[in-house]
């Protein structure tokens, strides 16, 4: 697949563009880092977009790595097909019972921050359904505001155009804009943060010059999978906790000095033919992009420059760059003086393990609040197996144990770097 841009020569442009679209503005920019604080419990609440988020783990991994110095924890209460009234949560009950369960489940998580995403399903009702949606949204917010004042309204995303025989989403997307505008107004009226991501998605498509059907961020025009959540994770995280930090190391052999950003450098040894130092990153890198894109397109470049290493004063020649004794790449003194953009391969194993552990934790919590056999445990067939309901709260211990492992795994580790001139 070809595009109008050399994908591997524009990482900084792409990264800056996505960051500018994702970044808060005005008062939101000032308070971006104040939204999530040490010790917080962040709750994701909504319909399918939120529920499937826990299966990819990209957003929670992005937030976890950016908040590595805190003890923030996360809970996902997404429920496919749900509405702001909690209709999916009614199961066999009435809509009122569904909303009561939503309220009960939320209170059970004891959130200090709520990220709310509703409106996508309600938009199918068109303009006629908007007044009821606004009424129910305000009712839900009134309940949430009794628990916390830090609430984020995440606007639902439009549908993507996919090849025939799938229908055009134009009519739906037109109606959705009415609901998004309503959410923006409600958020402003009640003093809550509002996050809209459609501009980010459109920027990705423009940069890649890909019309609908060639590279989609959804699996079927509606539901996001790994590739979509990977792209959106940075945009959402930036709106919640502020822009990410850069990783850079600059060594000046002549001056015997080292400058760094996003990483601390120690035990350095600088000579004209050999450079060695230890580096401890402030945070782990983001996970690599999924490799399941149609046409084998890779989107790693959307991460922006990952690790920039500059070394000035080396003797001319070719150099092996090793991390923890493993050769990462072979480069030249000229390129090193200009600065080379490293892959973060030496940390990718750790961040991959972190994401897998986050996904596993989410599955444990899913079974905690939505056991598959709840009809037998809690509902009209509980007379058969209701005695087993006592086991459900035991999932709490498993979730807490996983969170303790996450707290350890999210901490960056020290790595040994060496540049050795090749004879």
Instruction: Encode the helix/strand succession as letters.
Output: HHEHHEHEHEHEHHEEEEEEEHEHHHHE
Indicate the percent of residues in helices: 25-40%
Main sheet summary: 5 strands, parallel
Count the strands?
14
CATH topology of the largest domain: the name is Rossmann fold
CATH architecture of the largest domain: 3-Layer(aba) Sandwich
Main sheet strand line-up: 2-1-3-4-5
Query: Structural class of the secondary structure composition?
Result: alpha/beta
Residue runs with pLDDT of under 50 for 5 or more positions: 1-33, 293-301
Overall residue-averaged pLDDT value:
86
| CATH domain class name of the largest domain | Alpha Beta
Written description of the protein model:
The structure is a single chain. The protein has 423 residues and is an alpha/beta fold. The protein has three domains: 7-241, SGNH hydrolase (Rossmann fold, 3-Layer(aba) Sandwich); 247-346 and 412-421; 348-398. 39% of the residues lie in helices and 19% in strands. The chain contains 14 helices and 14 strands. The chain has helices spanning 11-22, 27-30, 48-56, 58-66, 95-109, 130-145, 170-190, 198-208, 226-241, 333-338, 345-369, 374-377, 382-385, 395-409, and strands at 41-46, 73-76, 113-117, 150-154, 193-195, 247-252, 257-261, 263-270, 274-281, 307-312, 318-323, 326-332, 340-342, 414-421. The strands form three sheets. The protein has a five-stranded parallel sheet, sandwiched between helices. Strands 8-9-14-11-12 form a five-stranded antiparallel sheet. The radius of gyration is 24 Å and the shape is elongated. It starts with 10 loop residues before the first helix and ends with a strand. Residues 1-33 and 293-301 have low confidence and may be disordered.
């Amino acid at each position: 697949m070809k595009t109008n841009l050399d994908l591997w020569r524009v990482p900084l442009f792409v990264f800056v563009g996505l960051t500018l679209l994702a970044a808060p503005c005005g008062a939101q920019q000032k308070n971006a880092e104040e939204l999530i604080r040490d010790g917080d419990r962040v709750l994701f609440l909504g319909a399918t977009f939120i529920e499937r988020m826990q299966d990819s783990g990209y957003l929670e991994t992005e937030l976890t790595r950016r908040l590595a110095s805190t003890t923030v924890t996360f809970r996902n209460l997404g429920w496919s097909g749900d509405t702001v009234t909690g209709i999916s949560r009614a199961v066999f009950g009435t809509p009122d019972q569904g909303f009561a369960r939503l309220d009960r489940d939320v209170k059970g998580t004891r959130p200090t921050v709520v990220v709310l995403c509703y409106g996508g399903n309600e938009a199918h009702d068109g303009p006629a359904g908007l007044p009821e949606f606004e009424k129910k949204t305000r009712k839900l917010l009134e309940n949430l505001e009794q628990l916390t004042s830090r609430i984020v309204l995440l606007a639902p995303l439009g549908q993507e155009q996919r090849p025939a025989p799938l229908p055009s989403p134009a009519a739906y997307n037109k109606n959705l804009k009415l609901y998004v505008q309503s959410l923006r107004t409600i958020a402003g009226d009640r003093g809550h943060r509002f996050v809209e991501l459609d501009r980010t998605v459109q920027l990705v498509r423009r940069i890649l010059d890909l019309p609908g059907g060639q590279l989609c961020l959804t699996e079927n025009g509606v539901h996001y999978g790994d590739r979509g959540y990977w792209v959106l994770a940075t945009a959402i995280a930036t709106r919640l906790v502020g822009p990410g930090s850069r990783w850079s190391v600059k060594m000046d052999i002549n001056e015997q000095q080292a400058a760094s950003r996003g990483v601390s450098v120690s035990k350095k040894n600088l000579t004209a033919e050999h450079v060695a130092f230890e580096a401890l990153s402030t945070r782990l890198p983001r996970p690599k992009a999924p490799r399941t894109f149609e046409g084998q397109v890779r989107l790693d470049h959307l991460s922006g420059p990952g690790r920039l290493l500059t070394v000035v004063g080396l003797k001319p020649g070719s150099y092996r760059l090793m991390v923890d004794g493993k050769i990462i790449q072979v480069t030249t003194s000229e390129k090193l003086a200009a600065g080379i953009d490293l892959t973060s391969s030496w940390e990718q194993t750790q961040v991959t393990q972190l994401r897998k552990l986050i996904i596993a934790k989410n599955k444990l919590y899913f079974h905690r609040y939505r056991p598959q056999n709840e009809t037998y445990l809690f509902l009209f067939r509980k007379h058969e197996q209701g005695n087993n309901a006592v086991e459900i709260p035991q999932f709490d211990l498993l979730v807490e144990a996983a969170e303790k492992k996450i707290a350890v795994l999210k901490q960056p580790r020290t790595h040994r770097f060496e540049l050795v001139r090749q004879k």
